[in-house]
Amino acid sequence: MQKLSDIKEIKLEDLKPDAFIKQQIKEISAAVGKGVAINALSGGVDSSVVTMLGHRALGDHLRTVFIENGIMREGEPERVVKLFKGLGVKVELVDAKKEFFGALKGLVDPEEKREAITQTFYKTVFGRIVRESKAKYLLQGTNYTDVEETVAGIKRQHNILEQLGIDTKKEFGYQVLEPIIQLRKTAVRKVGKALEVPEEIYNRPPFPGPALATRVIGEVTPKRVATVRKATAIVEEELQGTKAFQWLAILHQDKVTGIRANKRDFGQQIEVRCWDSKDAVTGTPTELPFETLTRLADRITSEVPGVVSVTYNVTKKPPSTIEAI
Ligand code: XMP
């Protein structure tokens, strides 16, 4: 990573997307030459834009991997791989579900769960792939907000190399390339549009890095993720037409007494949240029609096995947060 103080923001009003793209392609090509670069694609806006810039600059000399961590939304890994295939980009799907669930086993504390996911991604899985690939360059989607948060000490570390636990300069001579480091999210979306990335990617509603694990209260097991994944699919289907900022489903830890086929059913609870917000810093619950809420409850309790109760969060952020962990 460059020295933080040397990085200058390119403001949205000053951004000329086509010139920016040309410049980044030139810089990536010049840096990598005939070598090989690697990057991890998640399907989010930042990593998608970096993948397209790298692809345009390097073609087959860019190796793009999608790490299937087991906590993605329904059909997401396959959808992202297929979508990029349509754009001419080959993406390798790496199945790392066992490693992630192994690391999450027995953890209930939110911060411990986040840490386990970060460590498994950077150290165990991506670290191994990078070492095996013998790539000398890593393309990373660090953006200007990440730089600011690093400076402010909000996020501990944004340098992938240090997260890998490797002094790569000394040991391997790796170089990190961060083509969107001068842009904030809105500017990154604009570059994505100019790169002809589909709108469903460049205008994607926010989704957290630790994925569905941020929506499972208590232990993150394959079974519990399957429950929240199904509920998420229903919430996304029902609310995608709303103008809200973000919508999600959360699986609670406590069970409650329900009734099914005239029998007591001690089952699980799903909480639905839907947010109006500009920047995710503050938020208010969207005033969804009661009819929408009851439809969500009917569908979730009938289509998601084991769920007997659905609630809607009516708390503002703060004191709530957008996600549950
Ligand atoms: P919270 O829950 O902190 O979320 O109110 C604010 C916004 O950030 C997203 N979020 C994350 N995004 N990694 C991310 O990339 C994370 O660990 C993470 N946690 C929360 C969240 O979806 C919301 O848009």
Task: Explain the overall architecture.
This protein is an alpha/beta fold. The chain has helices spanning 17-32, 45-58, 76-86, 97-104, 110-133, 144-152, 160-163, 168-171, 185-194, 199-202, 222-239, 290-303, and strands at residues 37-40, 62-68, 91-95, 137-139, 175-177, 246-251, 256-260, 263-276, 284-285, 307-312. α1 packs across α9 (185-194). The structure holds xanthosine-5'-monophosphate.
Shape annotation: globular
Q: How many DSSP-defined strands?
A: 10
For the biggest sheet, the summary is: 5 strands, parallel
Percent range for helical residues? Answer: 40-55%
Class by alpha and beta content: alpha/beta
Portion in strands: 15-25%
Provide the list of bound ligands, each named once.
Answer: xanthosine-5'-monophosphate
